[in-house]
Amino acid sequence: MRIGVLTGGGDCPGLNAVIRAVVRKGIKDYGYEFVGFRDGWRGPLEGDTMPLDRAAVRGILPRGGTILGSSRTNPIKIEGGVERIKDNLAGANIDALVAIGGEDTLGVARQLTDAGLPVVGVPKTIDNDLSATDYTFGFDTAVNIATEAIDRLHTTAESHHRALIVEVMGRHAGWIALHSGMAAGANVILIPERPFDINEVVAHVESRFETRYAPIIVVAEGAHPKEGQMELQTGEKDAFGHVRLGGIGQRLAEEVESRTGKEARSVVLGHVQRGGTPSAFDRVLATRLGVSAIEAVHDKDYGKMVALQGTEVRRVDLSAATDELKTVPAERYQEAEVFFG
């Protein structure tokens, strides 16, 4: 068999570990040949490939990013896109495709499966917001990076008696904010699932200033205030219709400083969270998912995604992963609220 592999969406620590596992397992146990498609769905859409053999994956386990490149190309929005992919896969003699990505990439994989293409999905997102899997690789690394940053910001906030607002990634789900905020002892955590009351936020900040410590607020990029409390700017949209976010941290800093009279600064961690070397947990998880993905291909169990459930890797329908995002439940946020202020 000749297997195609692609990585789509935002880069993520652990992508190379998946590619390595897929290729090493497939060659060693099944004698498969592999072809890498460059830059997400653009690769099969345009027939842009690269060799993917043992030599190509040697030494990539600890590397961040993806040797295949990535993009947010959406072939479903391109006229004749699905047929072009079908033709290019057939022209390259591809028997099956392993798609590694998040909600958007796997959403395309699901539609291609419905169109008759043999696809197996691997869940990837630092946001940890894909359903049917307990964890996605990249999340642990992102949380560790954010936690270390917040730890460092505590001391400078206290030295200058100022509030610091740390903006982390999380468009629709606040898992990174929740975990890093709890781990680093943030005084307020704001997530997209729970519209915040700016008056409550200010009250927590003032309460913290009454001690000898300074407040740290962790806010997910998709967090928003209750209706009518603050105005937020929105940006242009990408190929999947997502508005480019950013700016909630700065707006909060301005509002906190205006209302409390205390100096406030915002720090946007941005792409630092998803770049660089993956954690040990993410390397192991990514490797296990890669091995399981090529096993699914070998079994011709297409239209499935490999998922971590408990401590076991299982196969689930792609629809189970993409029908609904996994968001932070109310009870998890309530655990964090104990430590606000």
UniProtKB/TrEMBL annotation:
Residue numbers marked as site, Important for catalytic activity and substrate specificity: 104
Catalytic reaction equation(s): beta-D-fructose 6-phosphate + diphosphate = beta-D-fructose 1,6-bisphosphate + phosphate + H(+)
SUPFAM superfamilies named among the record's database cross-references: Phosphofructokinase (SSF53784)
Binding residues annotated for Mg(2+), in chain numbering: 103
Enzyme category, top tier: transferase
Primary role: Catalyzes the phosphorylation of D-fructose 6-phosphate, the first committing step of glycolysis. Uses inorganic phosphate (PPi) as phosphoryl donor instead of ATP like common ATP-dependent phosphofructokinases (ATP-PFKs), which renders the reaction reversible, and can thus function both in glycolysis and gluconeogenesis. Consistently, PPi-PFK can replace the enzymes of both the forward (ATP-PFK) and reverse (fructose-bisphosphatase (FBPase)) reactions.
Protein name: Pyrophosphate--fructose 6-phosphate 1-phosphotransferase
Source organism (scientific name): Salinactinospora qingdaonensis
